Amino acid sequence: MLIETLGKKHVREILDLLNFHERIYFGEICEHVAINKGNLSKILNLLVNLRILKKEEEEEGKKLNKTYYSLTDFGKEAYSLYNVEKEIESKYSFE
Questions:
Q1: Any alpha helices (H) in the chain, and if so which ranges?
Q2: pTM
Q3: 28-65 tens-digit pLDDT
Q4: pLDDT surpassing 80 at residue 89
Q5: 55/49 Cα distance (integer angstroms)
Q6: Is the CB of residue 46 less than 8 Å from the CB of residue 5?
Q7: With contact defined as beta carbons under 8 Å apart, do 24 and 68 qualify?
């Protein structure tokens, strides 16, 4: 399930963004990833359910609270699989 999820469209882009920024809110992710809000929400919820991401809501006295996302320790390890992939591909030619 983990490898399948990491291979989904936009997941790497989202995790790259979260690896660069320790904590980022939903609206900022929308600005950087070319995906509609509904699909982004589904992907983020999947990543939260798999404990790759942590979701926090911050109250600001407004009608809608900001929802922040960050990588969990497990998420950081899962993200490192992208580096393993690069190492394997550079070591062996698949041409």
A1: 2-6, 11-20, 26-32, 37-49, 73-79, 81-91
A2: 0.86
A3: 999 999 999 999 999 999 999 999 999 998 876 667 78
A4: yes
A5: 10
A6: yes
A7: yes
Among all chains, which residue has been given the structure tokens 């999820």?
A: 5
Return the structure tokens found at 34. 């070319």
**Of 85, 72, 89, residue with least CA distance to 19:** 72
* Identity of the amino acid at 69: Y
* The length of the chain, given as a count of residues: 95
Q: What is the dihedral of CA 74, 66, 19, 71, to 10 degrees?
A: 0
Element (H, E) at 24: strand 24-25
Q: Are 48 and 56 in contact (CB under 8 A)?
A: no
Instruction: Show the domains of the chain with their CATH numbers.
Output: 1-92 (1.10.10.10)
Query: Looking at residue 23, what is its pLDDT?
Result: 93
Whether the CB-CB separation of 29 and 44 falls below 8 Å is answered with yes
